[in-house]
Amino acid sequence: MIGAILAHLDFLDEQIQRLGEAIETQLGPTGLAGIALASTIPGVARRTAEVLVAEIGTDMSVFPSAGHLASWAGRCPGNDQSAGKRRSGRTRKGSKWLGIGLEEAALAAIRSKNTYLAAQYQRLKPRLGHGRALGAVKHSILIAYWHMFTNGEVYRDLGGDYFQRRDPARATKRLVAKLQALGHTVTLQPQAAT
Fold first, then answer.
1. S-S: 63 plus which of 3, 52, 59, 68, CB 3.0-4.6 Å?
2. Residue 10's CB: how many other CB atoms inside 10 A?
3. Predicted local distance difference test score (pLDDT) of residue 6
4. Whole-prediction pTM value?
5. Which domain holds residue 125?
6. CA separation (Å) from 173 to 9, 84, 121, 182?
7. In this structure, how many other beta carbons lie within 10 angstroms of the beta carbon of residue 115?
8. Could you tell me if residue 176 is inside a domain?
9. Residues of the chain scoring pLDDT < 70
10. How far apart are CA 155 and CA 40, in angstroms?
11. Do the domain assignments include residue 49?
């Protein structure tokens, strides 16, 4: 019985290898360069990069802006307002395979250490919940993809402390409020210059 299971696993590994080679053949040299470029985004592994390149392509001239790409992929929230009331802002349906690839990439990215995408998720999750915060990470991955393929540059991560560096006063205020909520009295003194 175990021998049959191992033989089946060997067969599946062989099929995965053959399909991988067929994908490389179909994508060609431009696609392989695109896969290498897309793989620099945190959370985007080789297979996910293959999905992104196969579904979106490498020529970003068809999308006038990054927002157009996100809208085409169905990763932009809607804006349904009437008479001052906000109704459902659900995202529209996009490519099924692109959605699955972005979901995997976003879930991997939010588990990465000291990256912008993980910090963005941690910042948004308490206010918006898991699903919407994950949707924002998917949107950010698409925006980064568009900029990378438009400019031909690898992904440059802003770092996990980006939001603290951007507005240190807000971070200080938030941390003081946390300490006060725990019952501590906080007095801030500027650090002596060294």
1. 68
2. 10
3. 95
4. 0.79
5. 8-79+87-164
6. 55, 32, 20, 14
7. 21
8. no
9. 77-81, 87-91, 194
10. 6
11. yes
